[in-house]
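Q: Predict the assembly, please.
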Amino acid sequence: MSELMIQVENLTKDYGPTRAVDRVTFNVRKGEVLGFLGPNGAGKSTTMKMLTCFLAPTGGRARVAGFDVFDDSLAVRQRIGYLPEDTPIYKDMSVLEYLHFAAEMRGMEPTRREQRIKEIGGRCGLGDAAGKLVGELSKGFRQRVGLAQAMLHDPDLLILDEPTSGLDPNQIVEIRSLIKEVGKEKTVILSTHILPEVQATCSRILIISGGKLVADGTPDELRARERGTRYKVVVEANGSPEAAIKDRLGGISGVLRCERVASENGAHAFAIDGNSSHDLRKQLFRAAVDNRWTLLELVRESASLEDVFRNLTTTIGEEPRP
Amino acid sequence: MSATTAIAKRDLRAYFNSPVAYIVVAVYMILAGYLFFNTLFIEHQAEMRGYFSLCPMLFSFIIPAMTMRLLAEEKGSGTLELLITNPVRDWQVVVGKFLAGMGLLAVLLGLTLFYAFTLNSLGPIDKGPTYGGYLGLLLMGGAYVAIGLMASALTKNQIVAFIVAFAISFTLYLFGRIVQIVPPSLQGIVAFLSIDAHFESISRGVIDTRDVIYYLSVITVCLVVATVSLESRKWK
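A: Predicted assembly structure:
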């Protein structure tokens, strides 16, 4: 079988006249942890619902482990563990009852059921909550039960729709580390609109906005692609005119843009964009020495994912939400 | 098949985890008890005809109350998404839910056996009509459960599911009452559609394949419609 876990080609979904997902194409390799990023209502959940065979695509196709989500839906569903948004789990069942039910639905043998529930329960930290009713659990514990049911049958692919929404910071850290650990051996797709989350957990990011795929790459690639690398330089030049300093800095090879920024008395501050392939700090330092400027500050900073996200998702004309 | 039984077991247990089952059982037992002992004390007859003859009407609101939550609740609370992204076919979900409804109905009818035994100890009751009556109740109840399940598949609102199921069930019941007043040309078809006309002959102890086929057809049609309604989310 191919190395690809998911192949999506021109996937499209219309809800009546509105197009929720618009000709999205991407592949996911085995073992990747893919972050699906986008503002609310961008089409993340809809795409996931199509991958899990809950909704049928209007156009295009999607394959999971080589099986078409529409034509071979049972084969696809056997290989997927899914945690829908808001963790819809029967509130009238106890955690243990629910996990037994989930295992039975997966057609697991009774002996294997017991063993897997014990194993996964331990891994997801369900210990004390096992006998409690799902309806009485805190959001964080309910999320853990949701993760437990998704991993129960040891699926090749985990699809998690906003696994950390509504959790407190401690719970978020716990869930993230759980996902990270699972991601070592499984393919994981998770959706979120929280940026630090993808940075913390994902090896690759897809940004979707207005139903369209607007970016695809590793966090580093995306940051670099967006703006290259930015340097901040502050020099004291003993009376040289600012325009001259700016020309001098702008003339260094590899500098894409040099801009004056506000500075303290007597010093001149510049923001310089360079291409990310190569470090400009040496040349900037040399320029200062050659011109007998006093270098007060030299900082290299990468574009943040927030910038990338905001730029990509607002060009479409949509309000990004933090 | 294991998924179907897993769903049936879960839903039957869910009935008893919530007040629904207890309320339905209590209301039904009070009404059934009244009908049993009414005949006994007022007419001084140990027989079950009074009870059987009113069951088609009783069922038309008791059973929709049982079945309204089966799929509508899952749709409303979103649990359906997790349920049908399991490797199950849509018809397995529908059949599992139907079996859960039949399970609760069997509990209900099982409890009324207590009345039947009481009557029998006071004066032997006719075996044929009693066995026939219970078989008829199961078949007719099955048709009502299927109608209720179909209504529950069409909406995410349990109240709407109840009203739709009640309207359909009660209309089928009313067909039996209006046979005398419709034009003669329609009498045949109205009588055939009537849900209690078929029950009457079974509860007299006469098991006619046409009556059995009528109930099985109603059940099949309703379960198919419910399955199609579940599948409709996948229409492009």
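The domain at 229-302 of chain A is CATH 3.30.70.1340 (Alpha-Beta Plaits). The first strand of chain A starts at residue 4 and ends at 15.
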